[in-house]
Write a structure and sequence with these properties.
With 553 residues, the chain is mainly α. The chain has 21 helices and two strands. Helices cover 71% and strands 1% of the residues.
């Protein structure tokens, strides 16, 4: 007779998930709080919800504040100095774009546990994935250089030795990541995010007209005559590129994974993202507003040079303190931007090469990851210190190229978020798909207008409107075709998605190598190939236009 006291119930193995390794599983150790691994109970009461939000805050805030970096200071400063507040409306249009794009990547990170670069390569193959990853590497390297350009401009204005400032900043950026503690790094990053609040006192020192800002924020206006339209379009695409940059997609997805955020805390991470978007939009609007006010009625209108010139204009208009605060804010923004861009690249390279990559590991546990991070920072700092480097031209070019290449990154993002094997019950809904498709269409339309403006510098406003109308018709036709195909596919695929909320929160993607790769239809291959070919042409023309603008100044 069997003794029942010695019998054991066989354990049911937990479903395998795609989380990379043990460094990405464990307690959430945020800058402002900690959540234990097994603490998945519902939060009741304002205090419990607030403590949870404080522990989760980080990925959304850092990626957004990191977006208001040195390139952003230059781009928003140029818009304010050359065109007043007439381009403020672009920020309003970009708010939903920011949220939808970044919400999709945070969802991918929390559900899959796999970085953006690796997902692209695994799901689309190296041929298609290489385009997106190579874009990231090149743009990130150039963007990192612009962060150090910002550091030199701020140091020069403050009367500090530029070389020493660059070397010291590089040392701080590297040392902050080399602590071997995710929590310590995030505390440093959050502290730097708080530095962006320096823009608030500058706003009140300059006293721009709030009523004018409010009007231009909601009422679109295209400044400049026919001869300036191509230059204005270049700047608008630069605003798009600096506000919604491709590196943000890769950074936030990997950072969410590294912070060990799971679908249980999805709504708190979305709140973190909303807070970050509010900070970045308010900061960008403030910069355009107080720069416009500082240069209004002066000979500096239309004569933008760089962010240091903006600091000088602020000092002339509102006093020395305003200029100094702006320079300090620029220095702070450049460092936090360098943090985010370097990490984005190191995470992506770790994904592609299969390196251990986590801030939870010490240098000895992830040598390749930290070597890439430090190497990028060191290389960018060295380039900036080379005498005669075309720094101003590079800053403007990077933001515009980011805007031109964004449609390609968004297309891959949209495809991943409709991959049921990857996101299961977390796949996009029809509204998100429709909105994101419209965003891709608008971005491609902007690049078409820019291309036409480069080829025909005297292009008229009527012609631009006609181009936009044609692109709109083509976009509607493409949307109709896509909608028809999706309805047909939906009828064929009658597999019900899990409806239970608890089951949905616990769902994680299986190991990515076990998933069947999605088939690429001929129509999709043609469409992606055409988009990619066109964007490569647009990149070349953007470079041509930037050189033309530089030579005309």
């Amino acid at each position: 007779m069997t003794d029942i006291t010695t019998m054991t119930t066989p354990e049911i193995p937990a479903p395998r998930a795609a989380v990379l390794d043990d460094a990405h599983v464990g307690d959430i150790k945020g800058a402002l709080g900690t959540i234990s691994l097994d603490d998945t109970a519902p939060r009741h009461g304002l205090s419990a919800k607030l403590k949870t939000l404080l522990a989760i805050i980080g990925p959304g805030l850092i990626v957004m504040v990191g977006d208001n970096d040195a390139g952003a200071f230059a781009t928003y400063g140029q818009a304010g100095q050359n065109y007043g507040t007439h381009l403020l409306w672009t920020l309003l249009l970009l708010i939903p774009v920011l949220y939808v794009n970044q919400e999709m990547v945070l969802r991918l990170g929390a559900v899959t546990g796999v970085g953006h670069a690796r997902l692209i390569l695994e799901r689309f193959g190296r041929f298609w994935g290489a385009f997106s990853v190579i874009d990231l590497f090149l743009l990130n390297a150039l963007t990192l250089v612009t962060e150090f350009i910002g550091i030199t401009l701020a140091a020069g204005y403050l009367g500090l030795p530029k070389a020493a400032a660059v070397v010291l900043a590089a040392a701080i950026i590297i040392a902050s990541a080399f602590t071997g503690s995710f929590q310590r790094f995030e505390r440093i990053a959050i502290a730097l995010c708080a530095g962006s609040l320096l823009l608030v006192p500058i706003y009140f020192m300059v006293h721009p007209k709030t009523s004018q800002l409010a009007h231009d924020f909601v009422v679109p206006n295209m400044p400049g005559g026919a001869g300036e339209l191509s230059t204005v379009m270049l700047l608008i695409i630069g605003i798009v590129g600096t506000t919604v940059a491709p590196w943000q997609l890769f950074f936030q997805q990997s950072y969410v994974i590294d912070k060990r955020i799971t679908p249980h805390f999805m709504k708190y991470e979305k709140a973190d993202l909303v807070i970050g978007i509010a900070v970045v939009v308010v900061g960008a609007a403030a910069m355009m507003g107080f720069t416009a006010a500082a240069f209004a009625g002066t000979g500096g209108v239309g004569q933008f040079t760089d962010a240091a010139g903006v600091a000088k204009g602020l000092a002339d208009h509102a006093g020395k303190v305003a200029g100094v605060l702006f320079a300090i804010a620029l220095l702070d923004a450049s460092i936090i931007g360098a943090f985010a861009v370097s990490l984005s690249t190191a995470y992506a390279i770790g994904d592609v090469l299969g390196l251990k990559h986590s801030l939870h590991r010490g240098v000895g546990g992830a040598k390749g990851f930290y070597a890439v991070y430090a190497g990028l920072v060191g290389l960018a700092a060295t380039i900036v210190l080379i005498p005669g480097s075309p720094l101003g031209l590079l800053t403007e070019g990077v933001q515009t190229l980011a805007g031109v290449l964004l449609p390609s990154a968004t297309v891959f993002l949209l495809l991943l978020c409709n991959d049921r094997q990857v996101l299961g019950p977390w796949v996009n809904g029809p509204k998100t798909n429709a909105f994101t498709s419209a965003v891709v269409g608008v971005l491609v339309t902007l690049s078409v207008v820019l291309t036409a403006a480069v080829l025909f510098p005297d292009i008229s406003a009527d012609t631009i409107l006609q181009i936009m109308a044609v692109c709109g018709v083509l976009g509607v036709l493409a949307a109709g075709y896509s909608f028809t195909r999706r309805r047909t596919a939906a009828k064929e695929d009658r597999t019900p998605a899990p409806q239970d909320r608890t089951a949905r929160d616990a769902w994680r993607m299986p190991p990515v190598e076990t998933l069947a790769r999605p088939s690429m239809s001929t129509a999709r291959k043609i469409g992606m190939g055409a988009l990619r070919s066109y964007l490569l042409v647009a990149m070349v023309l953007v470079i041509v236009k930037i050189v033309q603008v530089a030579l005309s100044q």
